[in-house]
Design goal:
There is one protein chain. The chain is mainly α and about 550 residues long. It has helices at about 50, 60-75, 85-90, 100-110, 120-135, 150-160, 165-175, 220-230, 250-260, 265, 285-290, 295-310, 315-340, 365-380, 385-395, 400-410, 415-430, 445-450, 470-490, 495-500, 505-525, 535, and strands at about 15-20, 40-45, 80-85, 115, 140, 180, 185. It has a five-stranded parallel β-sheet with strand order 3-2-1-4-5, sandwiched between helices. A two-stranded antiparallel ribbon has the order 6-7. A hairpin with a 2-residue loop joins β6 and β7. α4 (about 100-110) runs parallel beside α5 (about 120-135), α12 runs antiparallel to α13 and α16 packs across α17. The longest helix is centred in the middle third of the chain and has 25 residues, at about 315-340. The structure holds flavin-adenine dinucleotide (FAD) and iron/sulfur cluster (SF4).
């Protein structure tokens, strides 16, 4: 079948090559500021290494490729010349990496300069800079206007502060960008409505939930599925229930669907979890935002407008605005300050291997089975599932942070390093020693029990730390506190948890430590998930 995006190679010489990366799908970005269709040419490339440097799941790869192909088709529709290298062509040409794609197209076009918006990943930026240097190609990296806080603004915010706290950053962003403000004061007289938010569904459960709008894969997306299955056959995850928005029109529809049907309850149930309900009242907009198909300003404005017109309560809207204007911008700022050292951070000296069942979801622990299962099925889990189920278990078990990072980067459709790495290595694993979070997010199985119905379907008992039916989270929680007691002795935010641990009788401590060690041994003994060919040997041609 002829490819829907295929095109003859453009042989004419180009003045500028304008590189559009898979997470830069914004036709109003700085890359197009002085674009001249008579002299310039867009370059977009699908290269295997972007799906193999971590074991990228099928939904994640498919979403990126489908959104890229639709975006390229839209540019062409506007008369913009696009040199688009599809996976099949890259393979035939022996191109595996972005650098190789660039080298190839530079030879084709003789372009004198590469223009690109600042890449979101440190790794990609390094690759571009190195390749351009080798090719003697001038490189112009332009500001990413998608974000509301520039790198230099973030630098100015952190300058002179010994301790960073997201809350202060968020307030400064609210003041500067005037979201939810009444004069100089926060709307409703409070910056933070957390006390009204973050409830569980209680015993009755969530009742009838609004079903998010689904997007039936079109011909382009189906062609991508076939190629993903062909090139990344052994990769984790499934494409069966793929229904993500892949075009600008679709993401706008997804935004409207969220604002109309889920935003009003977003805050109340932000932290709640329920069996077989992956979406609840969450927006599902992270991938569209991270691919830059959606601008955070339009999301913030739509949410604020919903409050003004009386459609959603202030607590829900504030809770949502905090995530986008606060957390999202904050982690991006921290990422660029902390790289590249962040990826090696291991403040808690955690060295266990990643459990094999992270790649299959096959475990008796009901909470993990649910969170991992939906991750592999949809490429999605909501924040509390990522932080207080999957991330929590990895941290309590003591998994090597870089392995946790690689897993998170591989499996989620919204996973891009600038947002994934600070969340995983900072917020969830405390590997950065407390740069992002003031204390480790640790809790026992009782927290999961209070926020979900998972425990009612689990062979373990969240209240028990020892014995045959002890919940592994609870055993590992006490073990974590006992192991790290000296490290956190001076942290006032850990005082209560440590005081409780110190009250445990000596014999109970001993049994907890033994049971935790036994659990680790059992998890370690599981046969590893089968790595695909692409992780063991080069998929196409020689590996760089
Ligand atoms: P909602 O719950 O509807 O939240 C609205 C939006 O707020 C999100 O779309 C997102 O853009 C933003 N947001 C919320 N929390 C955060 C946060 N902590 N950091 C940055 N933005 C936030 N988010 C990603 O976009 N990519 C990742 O790879 C990613 N990895 C994560 C790993 C861990 C261990 C944790 C704890 C969080 C991670 N997050 C990541 C943040 C957050 O979990 C997701 O953005 C969110 O679950 C996406 O679902 P949603 O769009 O339905 O979000
Ligand atoms: Fe998870 Fe423990 Fe509850 Fe089972 S009992 S669902 S392992 S928290």
């Amino acid at each position: 079948m002829p490819s829907l995006c295929s095109e003859p190679p453009v042989s004419s010489r180009a003045r500028h090559l304008v590189l559009v990366l898979g997470d830069q799908l914004d036709a109003r970005s700085a890359a197009f500021d002085d674009f001249d269709s008579r002299h310039d040419q867009v370059l977009m490339a699908e290269v295997a290494s972007e799906s193999t440097h971590v074991w990228s799941s099928k939904p994640r790869t498919a979403l990126f490729l489908s959104a890229m192909r639709h975006f390229a088709a839209g540019l062409r529709g506007q008369g913009i010349p696009v040199r688009y290298l599809q996976l099949g062509e890259s393979q035939a040409l022996g191109i595996r990496s972005l650098g190789e794609a660039l080298r190839h197209v530079q030879l084709e076009t003789g372009a004198g300069m590469l223009v690109c918006v600042q890449p979101g990943d440190w790794r990609v930026r390094q690759e571009l800079m190195t390749t351009c240097k080798e090719l003697g190609l001038a490189l112009e990296l332009r500001e990413d206007r998608h974000f509301l806080c520039s790198a230099s603004d973030f630098e100015a915010f952190t300058r002179g502060r010994t301790r960073l706290v997201m809350e202060f950053f968020y307030r400064a962003m609210r003041r500067k960008h005037r979201y939810l403000m009444e004069g100089d004061e926060p709307a409703g007289g409070r910056w933070n409505f957390d006390t009204d938010n973050r409830k569980s569904f209680g015993k009755k459960g969530p009742g009838a939930l609004p079903r998010p709008v689904q997007f039936e894969p079109d011909d382009i997306t189906r062609e991508v599925f076939a190629q993903v299955e062909e090139h990344f056959e052994g990769h984790p995850g499934s494409l069966e229930s793929f229904a993500w928005p892949v075009t600008r029109e679709q993401v706008l529809q997804a935004l409207e669907d969220f604002i109309e049907h889920r935003l009003p309850e977003f805050g109340t149930y932000e932290d709640a979890m329920w069996t077989d309900e992956p979406w609840l009242y969450h927006s599902r907009l992270s991938a569209a935002l991270n691919l830059k198909l959606l601008n955070p300003r339009e999301v913030l404005e739509a949410a604020e407008h919903a409050w003004h017109r009386g459609h959603a309560p202030l607590a829900a809207v504030e809770g949502f605005v905090r995530q986008i204007l606060g957390w999202r911008e904050y982690v991006r700022g921290l990422y660029w300050q902390a790289m590249p050292a962040l990826l090696q951070a291991n403040a808690l000296e955690a060295n266990e291997p990643l459990p094999a069942f992270f790649w299959t979801g096959r475990t008796e622990m009901a909470c993990l089975r649910q969170a991992l299962g939906q991750t592999l099925e949809h490429g999605y889990a909501h924040h509390i599932q990522r932080l207080m189920v999957i991330g929590l278990y990895a941290q309590l078990l003591g998994v090597s942070p870089v392995q946790v990072h690689e897993w998170f980067l591989a499996v989620y459709v919204d996973a891009v390093e600038w947002v994934e790495a600070p969340n995983v290595l900072g917020m969830s694993q405390f590997a950065d020693g407390g740069r992002l979070a003031t204390k480790p997010y640790v809790a026992s199985g009782k927290y999961i029990d209070s926020m979900s119905n998972y425990c009612s379907q689990c062979p373990y008992n969240p209240r028990r730390a020892t014995g045959a039916d002890a919940c592994p989270f609870t055993t590992l929680y006490w073990d974590f506190l006992l192991r790290h007691e000296p490290r956190f002795a001076d942290n006032p935010r850990m005082a209560l948890q440590l005081a409780n641990a110190r009250r445990l009788p000596a014999e109970e401590r001993r049994v907890i430590r033994l049971q935790a060690a036994e659990h680790r041994k059992t998890v370690r003994a599981e046969p590893p998930a089968q790595l695909p060919l692409s992780r063991q040997e080069p998929l196409f041609g020689s590996q760089d």
